[in-house]
Amino acid sequence: MPHTKETCLQSLDEMAEKGSDLLGSVWFGCDMGDHTGYALLDADDEHEVKDMLPNPMINTARVVEVKRHTPEEVRAMHQM
Fold first, then answer.
1. pTM over 0.85
2. Per-residue pLDDT tens for 35-71?
3. 66 Cβ partners below 8 Å, 6+ apart?
4. Which residues are CB-contacts of 12 (< 8 A; sequence separation ≥ 6)?
5. CA separation for the pair 44, 55 (Å, rounded)
6. Disulfide check for 39: which of 3, 26, 61, 65 has CB 3.0–4.6 Å away?
7. In whole angstroms, what is the distance from residue 10 CA to residue 18 CA?
């Protein structure tokens, strides 16, 4: 969730006001000068994820579906 230095506090305030667990789920690089938030969120689709985000981040957020692999799945990938 990239954002600017100028919208950083506004975004944090919106997350805190929503009262959701979002703020505690996001890892921020802001203190290091990288105004980006990173999170693993459980949602049905991209629209649901973006509904969780503060307004300044909605248009810049990049939503990527990710998954974990079991050792069996990794072995099966080698057979493909």
1. no
2. 999 999 999 999 999 999 998 899 999 999 999 999 9
3. 40
4. 23, 54
5. 20
6. 26
7. 12
